[in-house]
Structures are given as structure tokens and as C-alpha cells.
Amino acid sequence: VGWELFRQEILPKIQRVRNAHPMLVDGDAGSTSDWDDRWNHIKKFLERSGPFMHPDFEPSTESLQFMLETCKILVIGAGGLGCELLKNLALSGFRNIHVVDMDNIDVSNLNRQFLFRAKDVGRPKADVAADFINSRVPGCFCPSFYLYLEFHIIVCGLDSIVARRWMNGMLLSLLVYEDGVLDPSSIIPLIDGGTEGFKGNARVILPGMTACIDCTLELYPPQINFPMCTIASMPRLPEHCIEYVRILQWPKEMPFGDDMALDGDDPEHIQWVYQKSLERAAEFSITGVTYRLTQGVVKRIIPAVASTNAAIAAACATEVFKIASSAYLPLNNYMVFNDVDGLYTYTFEAERKENCSACSQVPSDLHFSPSSKLQEVLDYLTESTSLQMKSPAITTTMDGKNKTLYLQSVASIEQRTRPNLTKTLNELGLADGQELAVADVTTPQTVLFKLCFTS
Ligand SMILES: [Zn+2]
Fold first, then answer.
1. Strands across the sheet with 443-453, in order?
2. What are the residues whose beta carbon lies below 5 Å from ligand 1 (ion)?
3. Interval between CA 2 and ligand 1 midpoint (Å)
4. pLDDT tens, position by position, 214-267
5. pLDDT of 34-59, one tens digit each?
6. Which of 133, 19, 14 has its CA nearest to residue 75?
7. Any idea where the E2 binding domain is (predicted)?
8. Omega before 338 cis (within 30°)?
9. Higher-confidence residue: 134 or 407?
10. How far, in Å, CA of 394 to CA of 414, rounded?
């Protein structure tokens, strides 16, 4: 039902609404830089019918026109996935592509982030990527600034789940509800790609209509570590030996002074862990401990695989093309890709979670006994697999006044509110049914919870 509604009602509105404010595209470069047959390959998809085309789609020149002249796309992330996405989109006929990335280029990016060269090391990724696309794909306008509301489609190629959730929350905050009914023209589709080594996924999210990032948060479990008993008494892998040194030996021996935490970017630290890991490995006749592996384990590095990025970016760019042209039904709505061993891929429909704290519009209940301590509430917010918050700030309203119960990010307020953590909810004066407003880096909006006392 969702997709039918999307295709018939929403897509035309998305196109119309943002059509109402046409952008000036780089001095009309679009119409002057085309050469004969430039878009022939795209026209084959849009200007004639085919077996996979949506039955209601009327082949015409309009879709291509929309893509070339009007459709505005925001690409978030200009790393491994982002470079692929920008190249794919620019070569598919999208000319109004904006890119954002907070990172600067590192020399280790150059093997796969092919829009960057050695001379670019140290420069902002977004600037260099935009310059490269502009110089290689004539007529493509790719600035590196943006305002979310202007975009028809947003594509994420991020490696951070927190940033992804924040973006998800941003698009949810732009939704307009009238008497509880979603105004479809306020929806901006989000295409999200993610990779980790040889695994990847691509998904299509219609904020407010289909499963959002937070609805499926259980799919991104927190980092799983090796069991402690394996590390301590039955190591089998070189990684177990490195973890033994990292977790047990470093804090015990404190080789660089009492307060010195292990720094994965400090070569002396890594060298120490490497030597100790070699000794431990020798004890158990385990081979394979190297300096490189040591750093990889300490820094939790999962090697980036260029071909996984290419496959996922291709899937994402195809979804952008399908939605922008409306000629084909989009992915519904989650594709898994895995080439660890052979090649495996499948698609399923991720379902919305009724009480999703990001997109459900209803405050979630927090079940605690009045004698629970605030610390327990805080632990729940960070440890629950469906919330996974990072440093939640909890406020409430008492006697018509805002009261901060706990806030971590500002040192002076943290100090002032820390004693609250050991107080019970009762002692804090919180009542059954009380609303708690929680702010966190995982969302641009404050999340409302309702306190439900258990007996
Ligand atoms: Zn949701």
C-alpha cells in the first residue's frame, strides 16, 4: 500500500513542490554543454517502454528534462561510497548535485576514493570531490553547501551510524502533519548505502511512511567483542592475543605512565602492544600477529573494500534514478549484499516499528520503579538495542519550569547534575506519567518519553 501511495500521490507532489522554486543552475550550463547523443543511454530507459518499466509510466522526454534541469540531490559523505555515488549520479544525468563531508583527505583514502589525488591530501573532501566532478562532467553543478529543504532526494554514503541517525532525524523533523495526517509533499526520500569490508546494504526510506533508520536499529548491534574467557585462557587467533594485551596487560602494566590511555595512532604504543602480543602468541603457538594487524585490532579497523563500495553505490544511484524518473518501482526497501564467500544478495521489506522513538510521533514509555535510580534510566537509554543513545541529556518540566536532570556534554552542568544519578526517581520528585525530554547526538530533535512507574 505504501508504495502504491508513493507512486501515485507522493512522487508527483515531491516533484511539483520543489519545482515551484527552480534553481539557477550554474549560468544555465546544462543546455550549452550537451553534445549530440550525450544522454542516449539514459533515453533508452525513459523514452521507450520496456519489460521492467512501471506499467503506468508514460515514456516521454519529461523525466530526463526533470533530472537534467530541476532535480536536486544531496549526497552526504564524500568517502569511499560518496566518490562512487557522485560519479554515478553525475554520469546518469543529474546535474544539480550537492555534497557534504566534514573530513579532510588522508593519504590512506587514495586507493579507493578516486576523486582525490596525492596533491589533495589535507584538503576538505567535499570541495575536492565537487571540483573534480565539475571539471570532468561538463554542465554538472556540484557546490559544497546546502539547505535540506531544497532537495528532492538525499543519498547517504556514511560510515557512521550516529551521523546516519542524525540525518534520518533531520528528514523526519521536516515532515508536516496536519491533524495527525502526514502531508506527503513534505517527504524527502532518503537513499542510504552502507558498507563494512565485504558486506553492504542499500535501502530506500520514505520518512514517515516506511521503516526509518531508528526503526531497524537492532540491525546495527553494538560492537561485539571476543568473549573474555577466550581472550584470557583459550586464545586461538592472533586477534585474541592482541586483545589480551590491549584489555588486560596494558591497564596492568601501564607502560607509558599511570594515566596514559592506549592511543591507536601512537606508533610507540602500537609497537609495545605488538611486542607483547608476539610473546603471548608464542606461548600458545599462534602465528599471524603483525604490526599492521595489531593496529587494526586496536583501532577496530575494518578494511574498506573498493568493490563493495562500487556495488552498493551502484544500487543507490539506481534507486535515485528510479525515484527521480518515476519510471521504475523503487527498491522495497532493504537490500543486503555480501561477498565474503561467493556472492550473496537478497531484498526484504523492513517494517516500521510502531513505537519507534524517531518516527512514530508517540512518546515511548519508560518502565521503571519509583525506587530506580536516574543512573538506571541513563543506562537504559544508552544500552537498549532500540535506542543506543550516546550521551543523553535528560530534562523534564516541574511546576511549569524546565529542569535538567542530567547533562553530560557541558562540564559545569555535568558536575552540578551528577548527584542526581544516584537519586531515585521518587527522590527527584518525578511522578508516574511524567514526560522526560531527552536530547542526544543521534538525533537533531528532542525525544519525548513517558515515565511509567512499575510497582
Ligand atoms: Zn522509525
1. 364-368, 443-453, 435-440, 393-398, 401-406
2. 212, 214-215, 356, 358-359
3. 15
4. 999 887 766 667 788 888 888 999 999 999 999 999 999 999 988 888 998 899
5. 788 889 999 999 999 888 888 788 89
6. 133
7. 366-454
8. no
9. 407
10. 11
CA 372 and chain centroid, separation: 34
Tell how far the Cα of 358 is from the centroid of ligand 1, in angstroms.
Answer: 5
215 CA → ligand 1 middle, Å: 4
Separation of CA 320 and ligand 1 centre (Å): 21
d(CA 27, CA 32): 10
Does 23 have pLDDT greater than 70?
no
pLDDT for position 329 = 87
Contact 71, 153 (CB under 8 A): yes
What are φ and ψ of residue 163, in 5° steps? Answer: -65, -40
pLDDT of residue 130: 87
Q: Rounded distance, CA 69 to CA 254, Å?
A: 61
Residue corresponding to grid cell 522513538: 357
Domain ranges of the chain: 31-219+305-348, 228-299, 364-453
Catalytically annotated residue among 142, 212, 215, 229: 229
> For the whole model, what pTM was predicted?
0.80
CATH level 2 (architecture), domain 31-219+305-348:
3-Layer(aba) Sandwich (3.40)
**Interval between CA 387 and ligand 1 midpoint (Å):** 11
CA of 181 relative to ligand 1 center, distance in Å: 16
User: Residue 22 has what pLDDT?
Assistant: 37
Q: Give me the residue label for grid cell 526503526.
A: 215
Contact call for residues 347 and 318 (beta carbons, < 8 A): no
- pLDDT of 20 > 50? The answer is no
Question: What residues contact 358, with CB distance under 8 A and at least 6 apart?
Answer: 165, 168, 169, 172, 212, 213, 214, 215, 443, 447
Tell me the percentage of the chain whose pLDDT exceeds 70. Answer: 90
Quick one: which of 46, 94, 102 has its CA closest to 74? Answer: 94
Cα 333 to ligand 1 centroid, rounded to whole Å: 14
CA 199 – ligand 1 centroid, Å: 23
Check: CB of residue 188 under 8 Å from CB of residue 207. yes
CB atoms < 10 A from the CB of 219, how many?
16
Contact yes or no for 214/358 (Cβ under 8 A): yes
Question: Is there a catalytic annotation at residue 316?
Answer: no
Domain 364-453 CATH (choose: 3.10.290.20, 3.40.630.30, 3.30.70.2190, 3.40.50.720): 3.10.290.20
